[in-house]
Description:
The complex is a heterotrimer of chains A (about 425), B (about 280) and C (about 325).
Chain A: H1 5-18, E1 41-48, H2 51-67, E2 71-78, H3 83-92, E3 99-102, H4 107-112, H5 120-124, H6 135-139, E4 142-143, E5 146-147, E6 150-151, E7 154-155, E8 157-162, H7 163-168, H8 180-194, H9 206-215, E9 221-222, E10 225-226, H10 230-245, H11 252-259, H12 267-270, E11 275-279, H13 283-288, E12 294-297, E13 309-310, E14 313-316, H14 323-335, H15 337-343, H16 353-360, H17 366-379, H18 393-408, H19 414-429
Parallel strand pairs in A: 1-2, 1-3
Antiparallel strand pairs in A: 3-14, 4-5, 6-14, 7-13, 8-11, 8-12, 9-10
Chain B: H1 2-27, H2 32-37, H3 50-55, H4 62-93, H5 99-108, H6 118-127, H7 138-141, H8 150-161, H9 165-173, H10 178-189, H11 191-207, H12 210-215, H13 224-228, H14 240-262, H15 272-275
Helix pairs in contact in B: 4-8, 4-11, 8-11, 9-10, 11-14
Chain C: H1 8-14, H2 24-56, H3 76-83, H4 86-118, H5 124-136, H6 141-150, H7 156-163, H8 178-188, H9 191-202, H10 206-214, H11 219-248, H12 251-257, H13 270-280, H14 284-312
Helix pairs in contact in C: 4-5, 4-8, 4-9, 4-11, 5-9, 9-11, 11-14, 13-14
Amino acid sequence: MSGTPRRRLLATAVAAVLLAPLAACGDDGGEAPAVDSTKPVELSIFWWGGDARAKLTEEALALYTKKHPNVTFKKTWQANQGYFDKLATLTAGNDAPDIFQIDDNFLTEYASRNVTLDLTSYQKSNKLDTSKFPESLWKYGVVDGKLAGVAFGENTQGLVFNKTKLAAAGQPLPTTGMTWEAFVDWAAAATTATKVPGTQDPSADYKAFWIWLRQQNKDLYKDKELGFTAQDVTAWFDLWKGARDRKATPTADVIREGNATDITKQLVVTGKALTSWVWVNQLPELQKNTKDELGVVAYPGDPKAQWARAALYFSVYRGSDKKDVAVDVINFLANDPEVGKVLGTDRGLPPNLDIRASVLGTVTDASMKTSIEVENTLGKTFGPSPQVPLKGHSTLRSELIKAAESVQAGKATPAQAAEAFITAAKSAISK
Amino acid sequence: MKSILRTVVILALLGVILYPLFWVLGSSLKSQPEMLSNAGVIPESFTPGNYPKGWSHLDTSFGRFFLNSTIVSLLVVVGNALSCLLAAFAFARLRFRGRATWFAVMVGTLLLPGHVLIVPQFIVFRQLDLVGGEFPYLPLILPHFLATEAFFVFLMVQFMRGIPRELDEAAKIDGCTTFGVFRNVILPLSRPALVTTAIFSFIWTWNDFFRQLVYVSDLPKYTVPVALRLFIDSQGQSEIGPMFAMSVLSLLPVFLFFLAFQKMLVEGINTSGLKG
Amino acid sequence: MALTTAPAPLHRAAKGPRIEPRGPRREGLAGYLFLTPWLVGLATITAIPMLMSLVLSFTDYDILSDWSELNWVGFDNYQRMFTEDPTFWHAVQVTVLFAVIATPLKLGAALGVALLLNKAVRGVGLYRSLFYLPSLLGGSVALAIVWVSMFSRDGSFNELLSVFGIAGPGWVNDPDYALGTLILLAIWQFGAPMVIFLAGLKQVPVELYEAASVDGAGAFRKFRSITLPILSPVIFFNLVLETIHGFQGFTSAFVISGGTGGPVDSTLMYTLYLYIKGFTDYEMGYASALAWVFLLAVGLLTVVLFSTGRFWVHYGDER
């Protein structure tokens, strides 16, 4: 929606009156102070996560201060809930932190509105060194040709299953590469044998849907459009309706419990299904929440459809007046071997492959080891990354949940729900 | 006999109403895997360790968060009680031009859903240079000294209008000024409204998550509701047991505050006492 | 503003026949003096953000873009709401259903318990505090977990039902029942209006009851002819505020649905929809328009409530 110049002018005038003393920020032209080793600089940095992540990140930042005593940090961290509300509010007040953590749900929202600094020039001048990153990983931070975020952890889709219960019932374990049909057969048999539904129904899960699309040479997004049609969605919903009819999945209300993204609500840990559709690197946390032993494989179908997904990124605020230092900090956090040891696998596998190799040798937690091995094995066959999700991605995700749940609850047929979803998804990405 | 019946009814109702709170209490004593598998009230394995674990879970002790929340909540109580009382007296008792209009404006400010005000308010507070700094709570407290919470102004107006006007007139005949009427008649008789305001101000501030989240950015400055959410990272680690333990603890100060203040609601007001 | 006609009782009081001992001019001055803090707060903290949101409702404001990117869209947002957005109408339906059922039940529970607790019973202070406990949980994480757990398929509520041989559904996760649990949650947290009722009951002068007892009035007559009239301003307050609160009901819907309004939009309250539009879809201009339509609609309702108040609210200053 680009208004005529006059409309734009009027709106700008209104904004100017309301916001008079707020300095307009965010022009790339203004040269930030160079990395100066004497001038004291305080950088603000903002991330979400638990206290373990906070401790590691603070330790890593302290290492930077040790090397550059003039640079100190104003650190803010909080839970995921409310993080993006606060970040948006700060951005609106031209008060966003110099460095902030972001994920692929929101990267395009921020990048396409020019909140994030384009890091391409830093990458070219090697001030931001991504030479040790897998190419597909750093490219998953490129939006509209601009490097909007630096990937700080790699993960990929993982199907986590309850080893203990399956073994007790003498059932085979799921394997990487089994077809979707074989997987549903397997789940139905597991239900019969264990009296626990064989799998969570992933029809509401965008990442499962996405993999499935990629296996049929489709994609979630293609340029600025959807990469799939209503027929694809109908087929996807039909697949899982069939599975539900065969009791391979739980009842609609239990499926909904598992549709929450929280670790503690995944059906594989609440014992309400034998498999959950998660990210490989979530295995250790899942394992902490159940006494049963868990295992992980790739999603069904050809594992080449999986990709090195950036679990999250660090971005630099375009309105920051300390851009160069901020980029230098990110470069340090991503590439310094000592920092690599400190940060470990908290945000996913380290992006720098040298550091990744050295960190992996030191891991002791059994389920962490498993998740790394699985990711490394899958990594050998990873296809190219898809494009970063478009603006409106989080709306598309919740619309998929709504559509899938309306099928599960018997409120709509797969075709009706698919039609509704396509309409909603198109409007979500076109605003 | 009648009072026994009354007590029985009260206890039965309480049993139903408090069940979820027993559940919270029970859950604060469960281990994490049990929390996910056992939906009952009674923990199978008694895990009191959630309490010390939760208390010192973060770099900053939970005691600090309690202190921060107490400071903010108490200041809001003072601010609301003072400023809303003044405004309410004007609306309820004084005649001035534009009163009805201002009153309507005041009620109107209650109606706009708060979420569209978050960003504009943040910008206003930034303009006033109140965001951040050593004492980041000013944006949370200052508005309450300016009677911006129309709920309490309206509440007090309604209470004051229940006070018979004859009392004002008697006082005026005795030579009281307008301020004298406020001080000697309305203020003492507004005690129930003031107590109610104090209770709600404290509790609502104690529980307010969103605004405290936006304005407080430094861990040692965090308040209880913000800190409670640090236990749960929806994508990663979740410490539900310690979170429940600290939730139970965080109910205590508000509960005690309520218990103390509600006493002032016990005795009825005796207007005859005033005239003596 | 549409509300200028609202406080009719005030108008009436202002035109009342009573002759004041002091001149109205002095009182006018005193009025504005007492009102000063509120007026300052209104001008700086309340009015500016409200007016900003009104202006933004005519733009495509998305929070994130630089202010220079703001586009004026005229009435587009308002037009879209009424003509192109079925979810808007759905949210209106959910909200009206919620408010119409939850508000009277919550007020009834609050008044009933307040009357029950108004008589001196041993330990009444503790009982009051215990009845208030559910409201202390507010919209906390603990509440979210406890409520969802109790009202899922294998939760405590269904365990209770199974005693009577009923196999309950997965309440919070079932689009047919989720709103019901939301209503139950709202009623459960009846503490605030209860306290206000209790405070109001304490304002009833005891000598009135004593005098009525001397006249031989029974409990019911005392309630009807003393308690109710004197309590009426407080009942009125609770009615108005709980109605507004009911229509604004955000917290419980947010808590139960995890912020989504699900399952299948069954708990998509108006303000939750507005929040999602503003902070998840980054359509704050549209969200602002939603907010102002809300203000007008509920404002109109408030005006209606105020005008009925004239017939049943008795003020001590106009008897």
